[in-house]
# Entry
Amino acid sequence: MTFSHDHVLDACFLGPYGENDTLLEKLMVEFLRDHVYWRRNFHPEDPPAIATAAAHHPDYLAFEARMRRELHLLSASLKKSVPFHSPRYIGHMASDLLLPGLAAHMLTLPYNPNNVCEDAAPVTVELEVKVGLQLARMLGYPSDPSRPECAFGHLTSGGTLANYQALRLALALKSFPVALRAARVPDIGLPDDDWHAFNLRQDEAIALLETWQSWLGSQCADVAREWQARVEAERVEQRGLPAFFATHPQLQPPLVMAPITAHYSWSKGLKLLGLGRDQLRLLPTKGMRLDADALHVALDHCAQARQPVLMCVAVLGSTEYGTIDPIHDVLAAREQSRKQGIDFAVHVDAAWGGYLATLFRNADGSLRARGEVAVDFVQFPSRNVHEAFAALGDTDSVTVDPHKLGYLPYGTGAFVCRDHRAMALLAEQADYVFNGHAPTDYMTRYRSLGQFIPEGSKPGASAAAAYVAHQVMPLEHAHFGRLTGATIHAAEAFYAAAQKFAASMNGRAHVMVPFEPDSNLVCLAINPWGNTGVAQANAFVQQLYGTLRCDPSRPLQMKEFFGSMTSLQPERLGAFDTARILAALGLDAGTLALGQESDRLMILRHTLMNPYLLDAQNGSNYIERYFDFLGSQIHALTRADAA
Ligand SMILES: *Cc1c(COP(=O)(O)O)cnc(C)c1O
# Structure
């Protein structure tokens, strides 16, 4: 495969060798000085508080010495860190940091803005709201804040909290019409019973919220306050789940549906929300993609049993396999359910794959046709993948992690919802009504960010980093898409190399890619030739993984490559794919022992997000070198076994 080097990528990162060190150093010195001038110019008439001679005092010198010693120790021990920046690192979802993001983050740190509200972060709160709009546009949500139905997004510590925020918002919006009924609000056209109230479409629930708000606005202040208090008293956020559902016996606590490949943050989220993990229904997959037929069946059951559903989660880039759920089919299943009186939110967990949407976006925000996207790649995007991305704009909310495929420092996840008006229901102080000074304009409203987010104090530096990175590399195919496109190129090269490698291992080991990659994660299943037992195959892969895992007890330089490991569980994979994969590996399905360690097949997992994997400059690329290394390890292990 030919691969032309993209020179824009040369300036994006510090680089595997630290090639761009002078650029970063120049920026850092420039902005540190700039920060100091800012301090000096605040009130130049104030005399310096620290005497110029202070630096000679023994206490000062002792402090400095202690500080230096601890910093040296830290710096030395950090040399054991995982070299995410290196193209030899193809393990977990981490890589080098985008220079514009890293520089903006470091530039902002000494100002220490707290994005909980505008008072503590006059600049960066606004940047955070703008990042939400940048992401909304990438996802195909309305992103013009002058439109009433504009999307809204904010940053979180990570995808885990963003998923939790999605649950909070869905529950707030679903239960609010029930609270309006319980408070017997007159004149606003409430649903006939609790079941209908709990199964309004999100747009209907938002319309009802708007009607209620303007009805309140038409009352005099005292009456409005009284009605508002009555409704607040009935809300699930006030009463708690047990009391709320005891008052509404027509309603059961709702279920959350997710594919069995979903991240464990969903289990955490249901615990945190108090719904409990019993309410999380994990659906089977086909080839590690949500099985839409199984979803239909599950929803049918719910309709018959009058079991409400809070949300269906579709995963855009599963953490373990990079697979992409058919979001379009999930939306179609919801259409079907609506006919049976069941409605729910569709949330996309795109913590991993969200930024791949850049490949599908034109500069004007419009969607690119599959053929346009495909000209740059061998197989990508499959029909299913293109349809999934095309459907994003019709979902209700999305989680996306700038600290994964956005190449930004950790502590930067994001939650985006399609219609910002729903957010009023999350406000901690119920001043979402007109209380004289409740802001109506979008930007002003979200400057009190702390009202709406699950967290409190949080770093403005993360918002600055995301904003600057997205400004330098706009979230569409001609800019950021060159970076995400490079990850797909690398994955396609890896896939092709894996097939060649499999052929070359004939007679020594069975090697296969267990399912076609949807994105930039590629797994390898391996079994030594002649072995038929899953337990032995797993032991073999464990040994291989031993050479690829982070091992702090040995010098970093001893490590040739970093990979990761995951497993294929029959209940995740389905009977058909399990049989197919075991047969291709020469494994006896009977040795897959339930309830034991060999109840699953261990496989190697590779995240191909480093932009320099296909380094053309030095003749050989890292993917070829990885397979050479893997081949030598397999040789060594199979020789040792034979001896
Ligand atoms: C990484 C990931 C999460 C969790 O995100 P954190 O940033 O680690 O909290 C959730 N869902 C998916 C699909 C992920 O890949």
Summary: Residues 236 and 243 are 8 Å apart (CA to CA).
